[in-house]
Amino acid sequence: LQPKYLQGKKILITAGPTFERIDAVRGITNSSSGKMGFAIAKAAIEAGAEVILVAGPTPLPTPLGARRVNVSSSQEMLGAVNAEVPRVDIFVSVAAVADYYVLNPSEQKIKKDAHILTLELAPNPDILANVAGLAEPPFCVGFAAESENLLEYGEQKRRRKKLPLLVANQVQDAMGAEDNEVFLLDDHGQHKLNRAPKLDIARAILQHTAKLYREYHNP
Ligand code: C5P
């Protein structure tokens, strides 16, 4: 691979958590730091790609050269992704999208009392599965954080969402950490990337992505 092996390619990346509003001050989120997705964005810029980074709430600085679109809820993330996706070659879905949103969020701060408060939650749409299911999808890379049966659940997820490449990691290893250890799952099988800083892991993921992308486009 050339140093600028993604020159001329447009890459859309989602990163970070989403935030689902309960009321004027509260919400539901998860412990994604956004570090892995931001590292992918940085590595993609190094490799010459044009990068659009759709980011959930995270204080991380924007990698130099990326176009950042900030979103909060998963619905907003879906909207931002759908607006960009027709013009991109590759979609890397790193965001930890909340699985549910609050059906009737309150405009005002909910007052507390001694009663049990029940929230109604409805499932969020799967942004990645929607993109991968398009008539002419970009090359889609998914992530899966699992707490057990990593390779089995990862491969099931890859097939269910119809992805050429899925990056699987242990929840306990990845969340918030500076390092990561991952498995790349594709049609050829599995490939381990040993524990390393997230930027090194990001570079290796993108190199693998570029090779597979070429296979898919020049079979
Ligand atoms: O099914 P699960 O949430 O584990 O799948 C993880 C992968 O799917 C990640 O790539 C994540 O970004 C993506 N995803 C999504 N929209 C959702 C849930 C997950 O794009 N609502």
Quick gist of this model?
The chain contains six helices and twelve strands. It has 219 residues and is of the alpha/beta class. The chain binds cytidine-5'-monophosphate (C5P).
The CATH architecture: 3-Layer(aba) Sandwich
CATH first level:
Alpha Beta
Structural class: alpha/beta
CATH topology-level fold name: Rossmann fold
Average pLDDT number: 96
Indicate how many domains the architecture comprises. 1
Largest sheet: 8 strands, mixed
Number of strands: 12
Q: In angstroms, what is the radius of gyration? A: 18 Å
Structure report:
- There is one protein chain.
- This protein is α/β, with parallel strands linked by helices and about 220 residues long.
- The chain has helices at about 35-45, 75-85, 125-130, 150-160, 170-175, 200-215, and strands spanning about 10-15, 20, 25-30, 50-55, 65-70, 90-95, 100, 120-125, 140-145, 165-170, 180-185, 190-195.
- The protein has an eight-stranded mixed sheet with strand order 5-4-1-6-9-10-11-12, sandwiched between helices. The protein has a two-stranded antiparallel sheet with strand order 2-3. Strands 7-8 form a two-stranded antiparallel sheet.
- α1 (about 35-45) packs across α6 (about 200-215).
- The longest helix has 20 residues, at about 200-215.
- It is globular and about 60 Å long.
- Bound molecules: cytidine-5'-monophosphate.
- Cytidine-5'-monophosphate binds near residues 74, 94, 95, 97 and 143.
